[in-house]
Fold this sequence. Notes:
Blueprint (H helix, E strand, L loop, with lengths): L1 E4 L2 E2 L5 H5 L9 E4 L3 H31 L3 H29 L7 E2 L2 E2 H20 L3 H30 L7
Antiparallel strand pairs: 1-2, 1-3, 4-5
Helix pairs in contact: 2-3, 2-5, 3-5, 4-5
Amino acid sequence: TYLGCDGEPVAPEHLQSVLQTPIEAFERIEFRSAPRGDLLGDTLSQAYQLLNTARSATAEIVQHLSSADMSRAMDLLARYFGAWRSVEDAVRQSAQLGGVDLDRLTLDGQPLGEVFADLSRQLRDVRDALKNRDYVLLGDVLQYELDATCDRWQRVLEVLAGQLGVSIRSD
C-alpha cells in the first residue's frame, strides 16, 4: 500500500497529521494497494510501453514538421513530453517505493544521474529549437538523439527492474 501527497510518500509516523489536513491543501493524492512487486512490475512495464509509443511518435512528429503541419506536430510533441515525464516519474517513484538508491545504479558504467542529465539536456535542446522555431534542428534532435535515448531508457527500466526483483512485460 502506498499513500503519497504532492509526489511525496507519507511516512507512517506522519499519517495522522496528513489525515487531519484539509484535502484542498494537496494538489495530488495517490493511494495504491497491491503487492509491491506487482505494482512495481506494472509501473515499469507501462513506462517501457510509453517509450515504445514515444519512439514511434518521433517519426510521425518529424513527418508533420517536414510537411509544415505544425498544429499536428505540436499536439504530438505535447504528448511526447508527457510520456517522458511519466517515464521519469515511474523510475523515480518505483525506486523510492522499492528502496533503491538511483545514485548507486549505473548503465553501461555511467551513473544514472548522468543518464537523467543527458535526457534533460536533450529535452532542453527540443525546447530551445521550438522557441527559436528551428524545426530542422527539432526534427534532428528527435530523430537522431531522442530515438536512441528511448532505447537507453528502456535499459534503465530493465536495470531498475533487476534491482527491484521484478519483470518487465514488453508485450
